[in-house]
Amino acid sequence: MCAYVLVAEDDQKQAELARRYLEREGHEVVVVADGRAALEQIRQRPPALLVLDVMMPKVDGLDVCRILRRESDLPVLMLTARSTEDDLLLGLDLGADDYMTKPYSPRELVARARSLLRRVQRTHTDPVLRVGAVHVDPVRHEVRSDGRLIDCTPGEFQLLQAMAAQPARAFTRDQLLGYLHGFDRYITNRTVDVHVMNLRRKIEPNPRKPARLVTVYGVGYKLVEESPRVA
Fold first, then answer.
1. Is 147 exposed, middle or buried (0-12, 13-18, 19+ CB in 10 A)?
2. What is the DSSP string of 99-126?
3. Of 2, 54, 11, 61, whose CA–CA distance to 31 is shortest?
4. What is the DSSP letter of 80?
5. According to DSSP H, which parts of the chain are helical?
6. What pTM was computed for the model?
7. Among 69, 33, 67, 71, residue whose Cα is nearest residue 51
8. Mean pLDDT, the chain cut into blocks of 10 residues (231 residues total)
């Protein structure tokens, strides 16, 4: 089974070793050296498997895994020099599908990758989240409103995807802020309001009278098919 595999590893020797052995198996392999680059690469082109080192600069592997599990079921094989049971359980609790401690055998890495790819192979008939005229595609990282392709920042996309996954649910600002960690460099209490204002300009027929991304007074915001009231 040949697949596109992303390796996120800041140790150049380890990364090249993993690349070499995975390519021998017939996989297409892309290597990145930090967590932020891994997230960007995944959003541009989702791989079939992520081989993820825990200790990385910018965004560490645990945070990468935490962020990914909010938006994707991408299989993750986690690599770490930490070998305690608590570290193992933490990685698995965050959504890693498998876990290897360093130093590891490259042949075992290939075997585990093969097993993961076989295990998670499934058919997604329609991954698009639809809330009325607003459609969010997590795989292609696209948003459409009334059929028009909408240009969103990573933070805007993350908020919209979170709300589209649970339409009509009222999210507090604090809950929505949680989806922005790792995406927005500077986060303040006003960050969510600014994103909502910008999203309304993009997805609402009349941004001054929002009927899709509406305010829940005293709580926060929700995404609905239509609203009987003006927010």
1. exposed
2. EEESS--HHHHHHHHHHHHHHT----S-
3. 11
4. E
5. 12-24, 35-44, 61-68, 85-93, 106-119, 154-165, 173-178, 191-203
6. 0.53
7. 33
8. 88 93 92 92 89 89 86 85 64 77 89 82 64 89 91 89 88 83 60 92 94 93 72 41
